[in-house]
Design goal:
The complex is a heterodimer of chains A (169) and B (215).
Chain A: H1 2-15, H2 29-36, H3 38-46, E1 57-58, E2 75-76, H4 78-85, E3 89-96, H5 101-112, E4 117-123, E5 128-133, H6 141-151, E6 154-160, H7 161-165
Antiparallel strand pairs in A: 1-2, 3-5, 3-6, 4-5
Helix pairs in contact in A: 5-6
Chain B: H1 3-13, E1 31-37, E2 41-51, E3 54-63, E4 68-83, E5 88-102, E6 110-123, E7 127-137, E8 143-153, E9 164-173, E10 181-191, E11 194-201, E12 206-214
The chains are: A alpha+beta (169), B mainly beta (215).
Chain lengths: 169, 215
């Protein structure tokens, strides 16, 4: 009986596919392409209060032609959109070693505990930490790097403001 | 001072750590609850991470084969972490001191226990490999050495916060056991702060059930 239970569990696991969980991500890749346009991302910021986004949709993400060498831009979540609308400062940091949800949890806990941080999200796809600082607050590159160390990780690069949003200056 | 009092004093000094497979050192200030049940023992532990390079924890472990319980204080040191854009590797050293105590009518009473070992892992979002070892001296309950290696893969790559699923195979070697080598296929489910592993060691008909919750 125990063998049968175990084999059933294996079969159930193999039956789980990304598609089975896609309901957690209502944004199609087409929608993600839509957000990838810089000009349209500004619109998304302005319309954030009416957006009922419950999940992240990275601006640069493209299922058709992923570009691992391109710089990740701010991952958009409800919390991040609200913080941007409130006048917060966007920051994106490339993080080394982020491979699982425990890594994301650690970064969220450490950065989320800081009063300067209005919104935080770790995107495992882009390996990027997205931050929005509260208006009038600041975190230096060194402080961000030190907070990442406390979480157990390292920062490879930091982009702010327009660069974090993917807007060429 | 009796070994029971010594153990109680040690327990009062700190919170616990582990020889667990699931990241035995957390983020600074992190608290983790881990339950493990393998072919020989069942354990529960809590570990706290005061700094990103080490954790300290309390562990209670019951050896079902030999009817004794182990209560130990565990420091774990993250000796080295390798970082890459798409991978992470870790080398941990862990130790422990506490008391072993007979249970289920075991007349051997209690004795001081020590243990130590290492863990190493390497992981991407789709591949996983690990090794761990432990040497245990449980006083008059005996000594034990074990080591185990794992390899696994994720059949799909989930996004942040998704349910992540891994299929793994663990090879376990315990020279002092009648069946010294065992192989255990297992499934790891991972979502947010929760990790659950279910496996079965067919050669000795023993389940593997591991659970981790990270605060």
């Amino acid at each position: 009986m125990n063998h049968r239970l175990f084999i059933s569990a294996i079969t159930l696991s193999l039956a789980i596919t990304p598609a089975a969980w896609s309901e957690d991500h209502p944004h199609s890749s087409e929608h993600q392409h839509h957000d990838a346009a810089v000009g349209e991302s500004d619109t998304a910021v302005n319309e954030a209060p009416d957006h009922q986004h419950h999940h992240a949709h990275p601006l640069e993400h493209s299922d058709d032609a992923p570009n691992q060498d391109s710089h990740a831009t701010l991952t958009r979540t409800d919390e991040i959109d609200r913080a941007l609308v409130a006048g917060g400062t966007p920051i994106v940091a490339d993080v080394l070693g982020v491979v699982c949800d425990f890594c994301a949890l650690a970064m969220n806990k450490i950065f989320g505990s800081r009063p300067e941080v209005a919104a935080v999200y770790v995107d495992l796809d882009t390996k990027a930490l997205s931050l929005v600082l509260s208006p009038g607050s600041g975190l230096s590159d060194a402080e961000i790097a030190e907070l990442a160390v406390q979480a157990g990780y390292r920062i490879a690069a930091i982009r702010r403001d327009e660069a974090a949003l993917g807007i060429s200056s | 001072m009796s070994s029971r009092r010594l153990c109680a004093a040690l327990l009062l000094l700190s919170l616990g750590s582990t020889a667990s497979l699931a990241r035995p050192v957390s983020y600074t200030g992190g608290l983790t609850l881990i339950e493990e049940s393998d072919r020989q023992a069942t354990s529960v532990l809590v570990h706290f991470t005061p700094a990103h390079q080490w954790s300290i924890g309390l562990r209670g472990e019951r050896n079902r084969d030999q009817d004794y319980a182990l209560y130990t204080l565990h420091p774990t040191w993250l000796a080295k972490r390798w970082f890459g854009k798409d991978y992470q590797g870790n080398l941990y050293l862990h130790g422990g001191v506490g008391v072993a105590e007979g249970v289920s009518g075991n007349p051997l009473g209690e004795d001081i226990a020590f243990h130590g070992g290492l863990m190493a892992d390497w992981e991407t979002r789709s591949l996983f490999a690990s090794y761990r070892s432990r040497y245990l001296d449980a006083g008059h309950f005996g000594t034990q050495f074990m080591h185990a290696a794992r390899a696994g893969f994720a059949p799909y790559i989930g996004k942040t916060g998704d349910l992540h699923t891994w299929l793994m195979l663990e090879i376990d070697h315990r020279p002092s056991e009648r069946t010294s080598f065992t192989a255990t296929p297992l499934i790891r489910f991972f979502k947010g702060p929760v990790l659950l592993e279910l496996g079965y060691t067919f050669s000795i008909n023993q389940p593997l059930i591991n659970f981790t919750y990270r605060l």
